[in-house]
Design goal:
By secondary structure, chain A is α/β, with parallel strands linked by helices. Helix content of chain A is about 60%, strand content about 10%. In chain A, helix 18 links the parallel strand 6 and strand 7. In chain B, strand 6 and strand 7 form a beta hairpin. Chain B starts with a helix and ends with a helix. Classes of the chains: A alpha/beta, B alpha/beta.
Chain lengths: ~450, ~300
């Protein structure tokens, strides 16, 4: 049983659930405590010890029946046939075509197919070792395999008729034939179920063989613009995790901020109750109040990565109490309120919809102009200004004077650019012109680079 | 110690807590594995209640630590009672003078005083806060750490140490180890992500709003005087409200309050007027009330005309 549980844990891991070794040990202990007799309780025990996030429950629910279902409902031999009738059945089956013979041995006589048999069928159905996929692939393969085995409704009907004809020739009574028919139909249901489980399990096991960690690392280093839908989902989760880490790091900094200077007035006042003896020291707390203002380019050239950037912006705004967010293409819009009022996915969609991409209309110069005129209060000496964009300005005036003014006002100016440095300054890129006005420029094309850039944000100030 | 899961369900039921099979299984596991339970879920589904019922069912004392932003060790673990120490030094001044009388130099006096030091740093002057109380308790306890998501991440990290070893070291006194390992329930309303380390150490229990049947059972048990038909309607409406997009969905506790209110005004059936008057018991936002009124009344009128 333990082995099965460990296989199951491996499957969960490959489905994206994070499970530590301590947790798997807990799971094994929990099973010992609860026992394996009651399936629901067994399941609860596993769930309580392994799944610690509501988001992971679906994965658990999907994998559990694959591993701890019975192998599918067992098949049964026909009941109430006399030995003579059984011989008749045997002879009738022998009269059938080879392929039907195999099928009917299973269905009419209740022989469980062995694992090897199943694998043979699966191979003939086109199942290969390097197949990876989800539900759709599973359904498709199951369908193929059923066809290969002759279990689709039409095939089964045909086969059953052939058998009935043979049975009649063998001289079996009508009741006997009816009994056989019902057994065959019942067993066919079970066998279909078994096939579906077999396919599901095989697919999950194969997925296990490609280690997940590697995939995450791989994803971390893939350009944000070339991800499939499911990979993007995975990455989004990763961004959330990243920001959670950021949160604890920020908290740590807050704590360091507590060790401040002695607050003489406060100490005396507080210790009055101790008759003026300074037993408890009061320190002046140096509160860290970082302010962040982000400006994100959501133009056509940035679209593929814009969603991630906006999402990061969203999480940042959640994190830092004084954060304001802006998005621009030809002109700038404040999006702080959208982020504050909507859930992450919706907020990002709203922003992308309100700023539809046009053709060659990116204008950072104009945007900076509006920014300085309308939202000048968003930047002061405590603000870290982050500009996310590729600096491709369609040969518009880059307005370096405004950039210089912003640099003078802000505490720090950072630039996140998805393009690699060698492309800066090529074509319509004004990146190199902007660089002198930034305290730091990070290339942010992959999640890993984004993570590093965010790390820097809180490390050096 | 419970010997079976059914026994857990029974014992909790005696405390007027209707536990689903899942809850009972997790409590059973926690008892046997000595692990904390981390109960997550929306507000008001009975997470705190579970801890109370558990304590009641096992005859343990319940020690509660309510978390909030800025909660730190001195509020959660222990504190030296400065004022009392001060008072004692004042009252014992004569005695102290005696102790130091024979000293000829300042150094000797300090040494003499140092010998008496542990009088002032003894358990007498230790002000145990919930966590230390749970550990020092002579009798077994259930420790409820409520709304852990409200505390800072650093406090969470500090909790980890206690939850894994159940011991605390007070520099002046040495290490204090729990005589009975407390059973721990942590609750979270999911307002922020908890650290993975904490989740790893706990058994995870997601408590959701109860189904219609179990909520009806709860209402019947807590408010036995309510007319059964009204109780059914009451729960039906609450369940419907939860499906709506409200600022704050009504909790189980509020359903029970509502039922009690209906008993208090002696409602025999739940007509439009009663509903109108008492809706504020379950909905706490003006906009929610308006919205619910429109949805419920509109729906009801439609239904009535439909019947005609």
């Amino acid at each position: 049983m333990d082995e099965r549980v460990i296989e199951f844990i491996a499957a969960l891991r490959s489905a994206g659930v994070r499970i530590s070794i301590a947790e798997s040990a807990d799971a094994l202990r929990a099973i010992q405590t609860v026992g394996v007799i009651d399936r629901e309780r067994f399941k609860t025990a596993l769930k309580a010890t392994l799944v610690k996030e509501p988001a992971d429950v679906p994965a658990f629910e999907r994998c559990f029946p694959m591993y701890f279902g019975h192998e599918g409902p067992p098949m049964q031999a026909p009941q109430g046939l006399s030995p003579e009738q059984q011989q008749q059945l045997q002879r009738a089956i022998e009269q059938l075509r080879q392929q039907l013979q195999d099928l009917m041995r299973m269905l009419a006589q209740g022989q469980q197919p062995t694992r090897e048999q199943m694998q043979r069928y699966a191979q003939r159905a086109g199942f290969s070792r390097n197949m990876r996929g989800g539900r759709q692939l599973q359904e498709w393969l199951t369908e193929r395999m059923l066809r290969e085995m002759g279990l689709t409704p039409e095939q089964l009907k045909e086969a059953l008729e052939a058998l009935m004809k043979q049975l009649k020739q063998q001289g079996m009574s009508a009741e006997g034939r009816e009994e056989v028919r019902q057994t065959v139909q019942g067993n066919a249901e079970s066998l279909r179920e078994q096939v579906a489980r077999f396919v599901g399990q095989s697919l999950i096991q194969q997925a296990n063989e490609s280690p997940r960690r590697q995939r995450i690392d791989d994803l971390m280093n893939r350009p944000l613009s070339s991800l499939s839908e499911s990979e993007a989902d995975e990455l989004r989760n990763h961004v959330r995790r990243l920001v959670a880490r950021l949160r604890s790091r920020a908290a740590l900094r807050m704590r360091r901020g507590k060790h401040g200077h002695l607050d003489a007035k406060g100490t005396i006042r507080h210790n009055l109750r101790n008759m003026g003896v300074p037993m408890e020291l009061k320190l002046k707390r140096r509160r860290l109040k970082p302010k962040i203002t982000m400006i994100v380019d959501v133009s056509t050239s940035m679209r593929p990565v814009a969603e991630f950037m906006l999402r990061m912006m969203y999480e940042m705004q959640d994190q830092v109490s004084k954060a304001r967010s802006f998005a621009f293409i030809s002109d700038i819009h404040e999006v702080s309120m959208v982020f504050a009022e909507n859930r992450p996915q919706e907020a990002v969609e709203i922003v992308l919809q309100t700023l539809p991409p046009g053709h060659y209309n990116t204008d950072l110069g104009n945007s900076l102009n509006t920014f300085c005129q309308s939202f000048a209060d968003a930047v002061d000496h405590r603000t870290t200004l982050i500009i996310v964009g590729d600096g491709r300005n369609n040969f518009n005036d880059p307005r370096l004077d405004l950039m210089q003014a912003l640099k003078a006002r802000a505490r720090r100016v950072l630039w996140f650019n998805p393009e690699p440095p060698y492309q800066w300054g090529t074509g319509d890129s004004d990146m190199l012109a902007y660089v002198p006005f930034c305290d730091a420029v990070h290339q942010v094309a992959t999640l890993k680079q984004l993570a590093d850039a965010i790390d820097h944000l809180f490390q050096h100030r | 110690m419970f010997s079976s899961i059914a026994e857990v369900t029974q014992a909790l039921l005696k405390q007027q807590y209707i536990a689903s099979d899942e809850i009972a299984t997790v409590v059973f596991l926690a008892e046997h594995m000595g692990k904390p339970i981390l109960a997550e879920g929306p507000a008001g589904v009975g997470k705190t209640e579970l801890a109370k019922a558990w304590a009641g069912a096992t005859g343990r004392e319940l020690i509660r630590l309510q978390c909030y932003e800025g909660l730190d060790e001195s509020k959660a673990l222990y504190e030296w009672e400065y004022a009392k120490q001060m008072l004692y030094t004042q009252l014992l001044r004569d005695k102290l003078n005696q102790v130091m009388a024979e000293a000829r130099s300042l150094a000797e006096a300090a040494d003499a005083l140092a010998k008496e030091e542990n009088v002032f740093f003894s358990r007498r002057f230790l002000l145990p806060r919930p966590l230390l109380r749970a550990i020092m308790s002579e009798r077994p306890v259930v420790l409820l750490i409520d709304e852990i998501d409200r505390a800072d991440a650093e406090f969470e990290a500090f909790l980890l140490e206690i939850l894994s070893d159940f011991q605390v070291s007070v520099p002046e006194l040495g290490t204090i180890k729990a005589t009975h390992q407390p059973m721990v329930v942590l609750t979270s309303n999911n307002t922020r992500e908890l650290s993975e380390a904490l989740k790893r150490r706990a058994l995870y229990l997601f408590v959701d709003y109860p189904s219609f049947e179990s909520e009806l059972k709860i209402v019947r048990m807590r408010v036995p005087n309510l007319v059964p038909e009204v109780a059914r309607q009451c729960v039906e409406i609450v369940q419907k409200l939860r499906e709506m997009d409200l600022k704050k969905s009504p909790s189980v506790a509020e359903t029970v309050d509502w039922a009690k209110a209906l008993v208090a005004i002696n409602a025999k059936h739940l007509d439009e007027k009663t509903l109108n008057d008492t809706l504020t018991v379950i909905l706490k936002h003006e906009s929610d009330v308006l919205r619910a009124r429109r949805a419920l009344m509109g729906g009801r009128r439609g239904m009535e005309t439909g019947i005609r």
